[in-house]
Amino acid sequence: MSLPAGPAIVAHNLRKVYGSKAAVDGLNLTVPRGCFFGFLGPNGAGKSTTIRMLTGLIPPTSGSMEILGMAMPDDALAIKRRIGLVPDESLLFDRLTGAEYLEFIGRMYGLPRRQARERGASLLRLFELDESSRKLIAEYSKGMRKRLAMAAALIHRPDLFLMDEPFEGVDAVGARLMKEILLDLVRQGATIFLTSHVLEVVERLCDRVAIIHEGKIVREGPMEELRSGSETLEDVFVKVVGAERAFERLEWL
């Protein structure tokens, strides 16, 4: 994968307002190329809204974004050709087989039919879905659907991956496989922008982290700088989002 100069993502004073509430409120963010970037926050903090803006699915209320050196939304089509997306909900075509779905996605990205089929078959083997390639996606488990969604995000060899809770509902074996694939992609020069509620996974995979709370970045930096002493990423996260409180025991429980 080519690795031009400049960050993979730059967001400046990004805002998204619904009614009177700002889901994302003045977000400033820079994601270097070739890094594994963790984007964390409690439920409703603005993570998914940020990813939807970065991918052009929803427009920002104000602010600016550059993806891979191109302006969003001005260069939206060129940007979408070079990114891979794994959304928080695997919105797949249930009446297609896994093989048919990957071929369809490959064709959508302009791959010749034969190349789309060959890459689809290779990805099904890589994600250990080849034995289910002729099953309808409606018969897939949640973990299998997540793996298929990740395979679809890879078929056009993008430079940037945006992944919203990619490990949710995936068993330990499937998650281990997905992590190894992602780490290998980063070694090859890709950039991965990941949200996850499983902080141990983020701590193990990511080299840089940002924490968003109530639509604003409250902490950002390299993983080793965020933690001090024996602190875990969970300790840092709970502290900066103000979620520390005394445990209240129920007498009847």
Question: Keywords, please?
Answer:
Rossmann fold; 9 helices; about 250 residues; 4-stranded antiparallel β-sheet; alpha/beta; globular; 6-stranded mixed β-sheet
Would you mind describing this structure in some detail?
The structure is a single chain. The chain has 253 residues and is an alpha/beta fold. The chain has one domain (9-240): 3-Layer(aba) Sandwich (Rossmann fold), CATH 3.40.50.300. The protein has nine helices and ten strands. The protein has helices at 47-54, 76-80, 98-108, 113-126, 142-154, 172-187, 199-205, 223-226, 233-240, and strands at residues 9-18, 21-31, 36-40, 62-67, 70-72, 83-86, 160-164, 191-195, 208-213, 216-222. The strands form two sheets. The protein has a six-stranded mixed sheet with strand order 6-7-8-3-9-10, sandwiched between helices. A four-stranded antiparallel sheet has the order 2-1-4-5. The protein is globular and about 55 Å long.
- Give the SSE string: EEEHEEHEHHHEHEHEEHH
CATH topology: Rossmann fold
Apparent shape: globular
| Tally of discrete structural domains | 1
- How much is the average pLDDT? 91
Q: Compute the CA-based radius of gyration.
A: 19 Å
CATH architectural group: 3-Layer(aba) Sandwich
Highest-level CATH class: Alpha Beta
Biggest pleated-sheet summary: 6 strands, mixed
Q: Helix- and strand-based class?
A: alpha/beta
Number of strands: 10
Question: Distance between termini?
Answer: 55 Å
Task: Give the uncertain stretches in residue-range form.
Answer: none
Total DSSP helices:
9
